[in-house]
From TrEMBL:
UniProt cross-references to PANTHER family, sorted A to Z: CONSERVED HYPOTHETICAL PHAGE TAIL PROTEIN
Pfam assignment, any one: Phage_T4_gp19
Domain of life, source organism: Bacteria
Protein name per UniProt: Phage tail protein
GO MF annotation terms: structural molecule activity
Organism: Tumebacillus algifaecis
InterPro entries associated with the record: CHP02241 (IPR011747), Phage_T4_Gp19 (IPR010667)
Coiled coil: none
Length: 144
């Protein structure tokens, strides 16, 4: 018997925020982490500098979904634009396996919206209207 493990498919996922699972997102992209490199060299050392770890940075996450009468994403960013109140949320992105069981999960910490994009409209097209929200955050961790 084989212990082969197939990779998870990228179209099986769910997004949860405020304790509510929100289905219907067609794309989640941009979550990454990187560590800046700080070069340091004393005058008496060889010409190659030492490389030290610097600040950790996280990429912005973009959520895309078909536009409906649900205004949660729009209202989240406009709460800041209209009232000056930024609301930070924890977001969990969960990848599902072939059976629909949770296979991997990423927790996004202190997320807040920084850009909302409404749909591109075209009278000759037949595609679904897509809205997107770009989210800044202060960290992520893989919890599963």
């Amino acid at each position: 018997m084989s212990d082969r493990k197939d990779p998870y498919r990228k179209f099986r996922f769910k997004v949860e925020y405020d304790g509510i699972v929100s289905a219907g997102f067609s794309e989640v992209s941009g979550y990454d982490a990187s560590v800046d490199v700080v070069e340091y060299r004393e005058g008496t050392e060889v010409t190659t500098p030492r490389k030290l770890p610097g600040l950790t940075k996280y990429g912005n996450i973009t959520l895309k979904r078909g536009m409906t009468d649900n205004m949660e994403l729009f209202n989240w960013i406009f709460q800041y634009i209209e009232k000056g109140e930024i609301v930070r949320k924890s977001i969990t992105i969960t990848v599902m396996d072939e059976t629909g069981a949770e296979a991997a999960a990423f927790q996004i910490i202190n997320a807040w919206p920084m850009k909302y994009s409404g749909p591109d409209l075209n009278a000759t097209a037949s595609e679904v209207t897509i809205e997107s929200l770009e989210i800044a955050h202060e960290g992520m961790k893989r919890t599963k």
